[in-house]
Amino acid sequence: MEFSGSRKVKHPLPVRVVLVEPEYSMNVGMVARVVKNFGVTDLAFVRPKCSIDFEAFKFAKHSKEILDEAKSFDSLEKATKGFDLVIGTTGVVNRFTGDLKNCVSLPALNSLVTGKRIAIVFGSEGNGLSQSDLAACDVLATIPADPAHPILNLSHSVAIVLYSLFFSKNIKPKYTAAEKKEIDALTYLFSQLVDEAVKSKSELHNPQKAKLAFKRVIGRANIAATEAQTLMAVLSRTTKKLKLSK
Predict the structure, then answer these.
(1) How far apart are the two ends of the chain, measured CA to CA in Å?
(2) Global pTM value
(3) Sheet of 15-20: strands edge to edge?
(4) CB 3.0–4.6 Å: which of 50, 187, 203, 227 could bond 25 by disulfide?
(5) Phi, psi of 4 (to 5 degrees)
(6) pLDDT at residue 100 above 50?
C-alpha cells in the first residue's frame, strides 16, 4: 500500500516535537498527522520503543514526509540541543512536587515562546517523563483535566499543546469585528424600536429590561461589522414602519 504525502507546509513553525520512548507506532503516526495540522514539520524520537512501520504511516494520514524526515536520538539532551527553550509536559503534576522546574499552565507559555526556537517534549504512553528527562527541560507544562482521569492520549496531548501555543498566533480572524460606535448605534436603534413598540401599545412588561438584555447580549456576541450593519438596517426599517402604522 502506498502512503502519499499531501501538500507540504510552506512556512514551518520553529518548533520540534520530541517523543521520549514512544511505545506504539499507531500513536507515532497520529502525532505526525497532528504536528502537520499545526504547521510543525520537525518531529524527533528519543530511544523509541516502537518501529516506524506500516501502522505508523497508516495513521499519519497524508503526513508521510513528517515520518520520513523524523530524527532519532539516544538522549533528550541531544534531541533538544540548540533550542532556545525546552518545554516538558506532564499529566501528573504531583509527581514533581518540590522539583526546581516550574509547572505552568498552557496559556502562560504564550509569553515564553515568542520569538524563540522551542522544543516540546512528551513522555512515553506508560510512564511519561522521568526525572532525568525532566532535568533536560527548562519549564514544565500541564494540561488541565479531570482528576479522576487526567492522562490524555499522546496525540491528543500534542494537539492541545500546539493549539494552545500557536493557533491564535497564526490564524487571522475570518471577519472584521464591529467597532464600538457600531455596537452603540445598534443598541440605540434597538432602544428606539422598544420605545416605538411601547407607544403602539405592544405588551412589553419591562421595556428597560429588554433594552439592557439586548445591550448585554450584543456586548458578549463579538459580532462582525457586516452583521451589525444588517441588524441596524432591520431595526431601522422596523422602527419606521411602527411609526407609520400609528
Answers:
(1) 75
(2) 0.71
(3) 71-73, 42-46, 15-20, 118-122, 85-90, 139-142, 103-105
(4) 50
(5) -90, 145
(6) no
